[in-house]
Backbone:
């Protein structure tokens, strides 16, 4: 149990590398904010389309016929979108902070939701095959870096606090080993393919809503050109990372 926990902790800790840009002086703040929001949106959309939804279908395929596989995946994507919209509305009501801060918080929530099941899977795989676990850990660490950027930049530029940016990014990174700890202590006998399949579909819905409903509109509000460019960059970077994960895994 110790080695899988160490691996998931290291993978989660890589999220903190994403705070590096806040220590670099940028003259045009609007461009960096638009770039970060668009980059995060590209990352989340790519994860949803090429990782979460295919994984959901794969896990469900061993238990249901094609009709129910697609139906359940679609239903839980929609549930994720609706609950994310409700969460967005709730944060708007209780928060007096600016829109950019809310973007950072929503990004953090989306990434926590993504990292917890990722930690569960990494723990289970590492328990069975430590070398495969190390390979997956490296790939996950690489795609946790842009996820860290998507939290750190909005939080820093909305609060002017490096401490808050680092704290929120660190909390998101901790959710990876949290998934492993919960699995090792309580969930190892309850996590099955159906649970993981529905969970991945739900998280895909959350990420799609946050990306299209919050990150892209916020980026457009600061700089439309940079939003388009960095959405594509974020999408390609995450696509490369996911392909690397597939090769290593």
Residues:
């Amino acid at each position: 149990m110790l080695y899988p926990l160490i691996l998931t902790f290291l993978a989660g800790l890589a999220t903190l590398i994403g705070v590096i840009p806040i220590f670099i002086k940028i003259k045009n703040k609007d461009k960096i904010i638009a770039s970060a929001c668009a980059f995060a949106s590209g990352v989340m959309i790519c994860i949803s389309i090429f990782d979460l939804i295919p994984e959901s279908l794969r896990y469900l395929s061993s238990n249901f016929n094609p009709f129910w596989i697609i139906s359940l995946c679609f239903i839980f994507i929609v549930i994720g979108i609706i609950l994310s919209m409700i969460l967005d509305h709730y944060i708007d009501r209780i928060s007096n902070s600016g829109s950019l801060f809310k973007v950072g918080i929503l990004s953090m929530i989306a990434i926590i939701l993504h990292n917890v099941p990722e930690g569960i899977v990494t723990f289970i795989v590492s328990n069975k095959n430590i070398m495969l676990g190390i390979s997956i850990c490296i790939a996950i660490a690489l795609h946790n870096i842009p996820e860290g950027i998507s939290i750190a930049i909005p939080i820093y530029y909305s609060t002017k606090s490096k401490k808050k940016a680092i704290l929120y990014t660190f909390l998101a990174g901790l959710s990876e080993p949290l998934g492993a700890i919960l699995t090792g202590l309580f969930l190892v006998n309850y996590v099955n393919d159906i649970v993981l399949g529905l969970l991945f579909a739900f998280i895909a819905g959350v990420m799609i809503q946050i990306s299209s409903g919050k990150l892209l509109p916020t980026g457009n509000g600061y700089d439309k050109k940079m939003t388009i460019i960095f959405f594509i960059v974020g999408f390609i970077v995450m696509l490369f990372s996911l392909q690397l994960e597939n090769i290593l895994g």
